[in-house]
What we know:
alpha/beta, binds adenine, Rossmann fold, 28% strand
Amino acid sequence: MSPDSPIAILSALAEEQEGLLEHLQNAQQVVHGGRVFWTGRMQGLPVVLALSRIGKVAAATTATGLIAHFGATHVVFTGVAGGVGRGVQVGDVVVGTHYVQHDMDASPLFPRFEIPLCGQALFAADASLAATACEAFKRVQPVLRTEQYPAHLHQGLIASGDRFISSSAEVAVLLDGLAAYGYRPLAVEMEGAAVAQVCADYRVPFVAMRTISDRADDTAHADFPQFVRETASRYARAFVMEILNLLSKE
Ligand code: ADE
């Protein structure tokens, strides 16, 4: 790996990336595999920025491009998620220590949730990168928190699937199914576990940080675009700048 191999910053939302592009020095746009990538430097480090797109396959394609085409040494992923763990509230943050694909079911050929031929259902974040992610969020949390959103940090399992979860009944079925195998997710979203699998295949350290935008239930978030603009993208920008700052000192 060349010393100038970049750290990949993957954003689920265009609004998150917009905030980061303002900090990108020597910015160059590269189109590859139908995606727009931005290369340059942030906090003195070489980086490559991309939008994941939505859903497991789209995000896996983007992650593969980051690693195979740009030689990314680490993948740091930000986005939003539905909070399904106890006490995981809108405006909180989950750093994923493990990831599971809640819609993977090749039973009876393989145990439910297991990725066929991988022998595992769970993919772990890189422990050191996850610790750095938590430290980064703890450092910026005091400036991010508001009266409305105290921005509590949670660490644990994130469940991904190609479905936006928007009813309590759906959450209950999903949690029951996973609990039967001992899996208790804190948050649900649509990409993280796919990117974790790609990173595991390429042995590239991975971590995802997700801002909780909803409780995956019938109470749709009052104003999602406003939440993304004023909360999720603010969190993502502060978090990414701080994790890069910490990584630049390692
Ligand atoms: N991303 C944000 N909220 C989500 C939800 N409720 N389900 C799936 N992905 C999400």
